[in-house]
Task: structure prediction
Amino acid sequence: MATDIFGKALVDYQNGDYTEDIRTFSSLDEEDTMPLPYLFRDYSEMPFLEQKALAICSGSVLDIGCGAGSHSLYLQNQGFEVTALDSSSGAIKTCKARGISKTVLADVNLYSKEKFDTLLLLMNGIGIVGQYQNLGVFLTQLKQLLRPQGQILIDSSDIIYMFQDEDYELPTTSYYGEVQFQMHYKAEKSDSFPWLYLKYEDLEHVAAQQNLHCELIAKGEHYDYLARLSLPVYS
Result:
């Protein structure tokens, strides 16, 4: 199986070789499509929650799971010092080709070279945690990358609505927001990987355990939300 399906698709699109979109298959028995043009969207095409997150960015920004770099590119054009980080070599190659000045090819869980004022995790960026049981450790890692007055901006979705359909039953041995995905692109398949969708109250609960303040910034139209995490301020 190919290891960087996502990156290959981004590079193809950037190079003008766009012939098909990424297809995704999930443990919820659903097939979906990830349109490549949408990953290269400009600010006007972004959902409200993404626009809101970009509007409240401050200082130096680390765009975690940057993908094609649309958020990084917007912030850079607005004068921000932004670093685009992704574990996909194809994503980083694409970001460089689009003109993003500072990129890092790395797993954020292993990154420790710099601290930032804003950590940005959009397009359900918290999904990279994979499993709910890993959330605390992940937030602890993010704290190490955060300057004292900094913020972590995260959007996600509560997929409980899917289990209100009679076709799905709530799992009994795992968190209901844990979904297994596989990507298909140009006759290649990625390895199966876990992806987490997180209820806001559960994010708030685990954040508190890690001594992080959690604030609900905005809600979307369909169980999605934008949250801000920050370190406690001591007088």
